[in-house]
Specification:
2 copies of one chain form a homodimer. Chain A is mainly alpha-helical. Chain A contains 5 helices and 3 strands. Chain A binds a DNA duplex through α1 and α4.
Chain lengths: 117, 117
DNA sequence: ACCAGGAACCATGCAATGCAAGATACTGCC
DNA sequence: GGCAGTATCTTGCATTGCATGGTTCCTGGT
C-alpha cells in the first residue's frame, strides 16, 4: 500500500518490467542488483529482488538471455545477463506493440467517446 | 492465439483495462456488451465477455460503479454501469499515474542508458 | 402454443506475473 | 572464528485477464 506508486503502478508494471529489463541489457550485460538499481532510477519502475530474480530466471529459461558468472571485486560472484538473438527479437516485438497500446490508453483517457476529435 | 495482439498485448492490458472501462463510463452509463464494442474499436483493447463481466462485478463490489437494470428495446434487460464518486477518484488517480509510467517505458525503450540526452 | 436462434448476463477454473519474506553463499575485516 | 555487507535464489500468495459453459429473456416462424 505504498501511496505514491501503490496498487496502480504495481499492476501497470505487469508485463512491462520484463521488457524494460531486456531494454536495459541492450547495450551491455548487467547483473541482478545492477538492474534493480537502474530500474529504481525511474521511480515508478522500482521493484524488489523477489521480483527481479524469478523474472531473470524465466528470461534465461526461455532463451531471451545468456548468463555468465563473473567474480566481483568485492563480494560474491555476480551473474551477468546478456541479450540473445531471441531476446533482441522479443524486445523489438514489444517496441512495436507498445506505441499502439500507449496511444490506445491515451485515447481512452482523453477522449472516451471519440466523437469530438 | 491472435498473433498480432497476442501474449504481449494480453499482459499489457492487465491493470489498464479496468481504468479504460472507468474512462468509458465517464460521460454516461453503459452496459456490458456496449463496453465490449467500444473497447474493440481500438484493436489492442479487444477483449471478451469472460473478462469484462468479472471485471464489472469487481468494480461494483468495490464501489467504483453503481448498476441499474433497464429494459432493452429488443432482448433481455441490460445492466447499466455508472461511475460513482469513488470511481471518478480512482480514474483520476490512474490518470495521474499513467503519464509517469508511460514516459518511463518510453525512456527505457529509447534510451536505456540515459546518458546521452 | 411451440421451438429455434440470438442477445445479454454471469460463474468457474486456469495461467501469468509481481511481490513480500526468508534462506544461502561468498568476501573482507576484526 | 564471528560479523557485516553484497548478491543470488526459492516459496507462497494476491491480482487479473481469459476460455468455457450455462441461464434468462426476447423475437420470429410454423
Amino acid at each position: 500500500m505504498n501511496e505514491a506508486g501503490g496498487r496502480v503502478s504495481s499492476q501497470l508494471r505487469k508485463g512491462v518490467l520484463e521488457y524494460c529489463v531486456l531494454a536495459l541489457l541492450r547495450d551491455e550485460p548487467k547483473y541482478g542488483v545492477e538492474l534493480l538499481t537502474e530500474l529504481s532510477a525511474v521511480s515508478v519502475m522500482t521493484t524488489s529482488q523477489g521480483t527481479i530474480y524469478p523474472l531473470l530466471s524465466r528470461l534465461r529459461r526461455e532463451g531471451f538471455v545468456d548468463t555468465e558468472l563473473r567474480e566481483s571485486p568485492s563480494g560474491p560472484p555476480r551473474r551477468y545477463y546478456a541479450l540473445t538473438a531471441l531476446g533482441t527479437a522479443a524486445l523489438a516485438e514489444f517496441a512495436g506493440a507498445w506505441p499502439l497500446f500507449r496511444d490506445a490508453v491515451d485515447h481512452f483517457l482523453t477522449d472516451p467517446q471519440g466523437d469530438t476529435a
